[in-house]
Amino acid sequence: MRTKLILDVLNAEKVKQQLLLWSQQFDNVVWLDSNQYDRSHTRYDAILAVDEFTSIRTSKINAFHKLNKFQRITKDWIFGYITYDIKNDIELLKSENRDELGFDELFFFQPKKLFLLKGNKLEIQYLKFFEKDVERDLETIQRLNVTKEAHVNKLTIASRIKKDTYLKKVGTVLDHIHNGDIYEANFCQEFFAEKATINPVKTYNKLNDISKPPFATFLKDGSNYLLSASPERYIYKRGEIVTSQPIKGTAKRSQDAKEDARLISQLENNDKERSENIMIVDLVRNDLSKTAIKGSVQVKELCKVYTFKQAHQMISTIQSKVDKALPPVEIIKTTFPMGSMTGAPKISAMKIIEKLEETKRGLYSGCVGYFTPEDNFDFNVVIRSILYNSNNRYVSFSVGSAITSKSVPLNEYEECMIKAKAMLEVLEN
């Protein structure tokens, strides 16, 4: 049971910064910020969950079974992440590439303290055991000075796969496509810095400021951090309706309004980008149908271009209706990993990219989000994100693109560089 308190706030942006700064005293933090981008599928503008009361931390072995049990027993808000490599719990797959970050494969916690911001209303929910902390915590939060300090990282970022090698590997993916092994594969590459030290909050703030994405995330799990400017929703459930919004198709921004409009039009009418998107829409429709009430899967938006600060993105929206009694974890299990990060057919694509990529994906292309006591949930796709292990002093981010029969290797490399732009700007400047 939780004690609930609703407060009026005068300056929501200031409160956001105060909450994030205050949260750093805890070992477990999940901060989610929509940046007020799209409220049609968003219940809250921002959420902060801190301080583990109960938790589950597990490897891939029976991961979804364990998560389902934890979610059902807890019957409360739980927050956490699922790494890409949990795919190995669903199918006979493996992940054997190098991993310098060391995130657990799956982690969720029941927070002692929870803050939910919507407009000028801040809802505070504390577990009954800790309700005596509310007044003291509020006083501490309100006293915090949130004047942003200068952000300086100046790291030297290296690429795990050199450009020439990347182009050859894309050629190998194309060979698989032309041989009929797959239709599409999302091939990714890592950028990294060793012996690196960053300030996670300052770095996150800079990344968020230059991106303003709808699924921004700051996650702290001990010495591991995720600083995410994700534009992509993986999956969302509210009541009986499940929504997935895969991204496939990217175009750069221009400061010139006419040129920017031309770039949008070009993306909207690009046959290659549309075919990428439609293939993944078909995959998502199939995934959702596994748990949907018969005949309820619908494509609400097909290949719609949305504009973000760093790029234009082609997004489709697919919905289904599920039975109220269906365990919510089952919906995650039958759609994971998200098709936008694998390719099609999903299993064949995952086998091929595992051989060609040189880094274990880990949390990259996994998801972060939450379940509610009412069995609702909301999860992003971990892309456009910086990952940091403060103990190992290792900083990493990965980017990728969808390879189809119409792909030109150099164009795919340039698309990766568009996606990498924000992270490079944050880490190298």
Might you state the CATH topology name?
A: Anthranilate synthase
CATH class: Alpha Beta
How would you describe the shape?
A: globular
Task: Determine the strand fraction and express it as a percent band.
Answer: 25-35%
Q: Give the name of the CATH superfamily.
A: Anthranilate synthase
Named at the architecture level, the CATH assignment is: 4-Layer Sandwich
Task: Calculate Rg over CA atoms.
Answer: 21 Å
Query: Which sheet architecture does the biggest sheet show?
Result: 20 strands, antiparallel
Kindly state the mean pLDDT as a whole number? 95
How many domains comprise the coordinates?
Answer: 1
Question: Summarize this, please?
Answer:
31% of the residues lie in helices and 33% in strands. It is of the alpha+beta class and 429 residues long. Helix 5 (163-178) packs across helix 11 and helix 6 (200-211) crosses helix 11 (409-428).
What can you see in these coordinates?
This protein is of the alpha+beta class. The chain has one domain (2-143, 152-428): Anthranilate synthase. Helix content is 31%, strand content 33%. It contains eleven helices and 20 strands. It has helices at residues 12-23, 63-74, 87-90, 134-143, 163-178, 200-211, 257-268, 271-289, 328-333, 346-356, 409-428; strands at residues 2-8, 28-33, 46-58, 78-82, 106-118, 121-127, 158-159, 184-193, 215-221, 224-230, 233-238, 241-245, 247-252, 298-307, 311-321, 343-344, 367-371, 377-380, 385-389, 394-403. The chain has a 20-stranded antiparallel beta sheet that branches. Strand 19 (385-389) and strand 20 form a beta hairpin. The mean pLDDT is 95.
